[in-house]
Amino acid sequence: MPRLTHDRTTWLAYAQLALWGFFLYGFGPVVPLLRDEQGTTAAVAGLHSTAIAVGALLGGALFAPVARRIGRGRAAWLGLAGVAVGVAGFGTLRPLPATLAAVVVIATFGMMVISGVNVVLTAHHGPAAPAALTEANAACAGMGILAPLVIGATVDAGLGWRPVLAVEVGLIALLALAALAFRVRLPATPPAHPVPAAASHVGEPAVSPARAGRANGGRLPRSYWIAWVLMAVTGSIEVCLSLWTADVLRSHAGLGAGAASAAVAAIVGGMFLGRLAGGRAALRYRPVPLLLAALAVSLTGFAVFWVAPVGWLAVTGLAVLGLGNALHYPLAISIALAVAGPAADKAAGWSSYSMGVGFGIAPVALGWVADGAGPHLAFLLLPGFIATAALLTLRLGRALHPHDLDRPDVRHAAVSPPAEAATSRTSI
Questions:
Q1: Which helix (H) or strand (E) holds 315?
Q2: 14 vs 10, 185, 382, CA distance in Å?
Q3: Is 412 helix (H, G, I), strand (E, B) or coil?
């Protein structure tokens, strides 16, 4: 069984992703409140999710060239600095075009943070990468629990939702000072020795040297693109929940605006617990069966949430839903980066496009349906997303060529980007 080592590099990468999570999971509860301020419809308010999609596309395109030029570590820090600037603008600007533009800026640099953390942890931890990525996303969810609670408290206190944005900027500044004071550095250069194959851990996923060579030449394998679509679909589930759950709690479960915003933390709390446990599970079980089990848990939690006529039961369903959602993205991205082999930077950049598709289309579609049928009925789109994700996961399992897993030279091989896809060791 692979062993996951928690060094200072790992903890810093976790912290960087956690600060992105603080904004991301606070953003969802803010959208209905911003919609009330701006006097727009649900579909128009959903354009803020489209703005995230646009930023994801830009961030995905920028990451690989920026990482090659200044290094992965500095690219991640550039991403956090851009997030801070965008968050400051989002909190001070009021008109719809201005808030949309601010969200584009935030998402552009946020995708650079995500891509940087993903490739650094994948290269740093090799066969333990799925566990490291799961724990990083647990840190992301853990910080994300705080944001809806802060928003709910400040709204109930009559201060509005904007104080949470000042907290975000302050936390980014504190992390930068801590990293500078303790001189924490991220490795940006992979091992010089050739890697025979890539596998996330014992058993699956695995990529043969021939496939790794094709990825190194610029062509990502078919299994990567299946994982790419899977990330788009599971991203649709997560962003729809983030943006519109508070509306359902207000309209169907009878919660007030502040309580509904705070209750969104139940999803993130479930994700936090699920990722803590999932980090250990990812070291023991194959990603595909583990992902199918997670999707089943998500469907169960959704059913409880959707039928619940009272707040406490709906929140319980959201917590179970979060437990299932916890492993969707970490497992999908770990598979995608593993099968990409030496093209990890390129694969990480392209993965941002999958998030852009999920964030750009699904919430607007759900908002459009919600304007006509109400948010509760509109949420029936989510079981369709879950079923689609399950079918894609089964297809991905077949595309991974299980017969390769029996070869002794690939069962314990590490995931590592090539020298040409990396930059020199750089301070972060």
A1: helix 311-325
A2: 6, 13, 29
A3: coil
Q: Could you give the CA distance from residue 367 to residue 369 in angstroms, rounded to a whole number?
A: 5
Joined tokens for residue 417: 């980007």
Identify which of 72, 171, 13 has the alpha carbon closest to the alpha carbon of residue 417. 72
CA pair distance 259, 207, nearest whole angstrom: 47
Give the β-pairing of 426-427 and 206-207. unpaired
373-376 contacts at long range (C-beta below 8 A, 24 or more positions apart): 374/251, 375/42, 375/244, 375/247, 375/248, 375/251, 375/252, 376/248, 376/251, 376/252, 376/306
* pLDDT tens-digit map of 256-289: 877 887 788 888 889 889 988 887 888 888 889 9
At a CB cut-off of 8 Å and minimum separation 6, what does 232 contact?
A: 354, 355, 357, 358
Tell the residue number behind the tokens 């301070």, with chain if given: 427
Per-residue confidence band for 218, with pLDDT thresholds at 50, 70 and 90: low
pTM of the predicted protein model: 0.70
Cβ atoms 231, 355 nearer than 8 A: yes
DSSP secondary structure code for residue 71 in this structure: -
Q: What domains, with CATH codes, occur in the chain?
A: 8-427 (1.20.1250.20)
> In angstroms, how far is the first alpha carbon of the chain from the final one?
30
Kindly tell me if the per-residue pLDDT of 150 is higher than 90. Answer: no
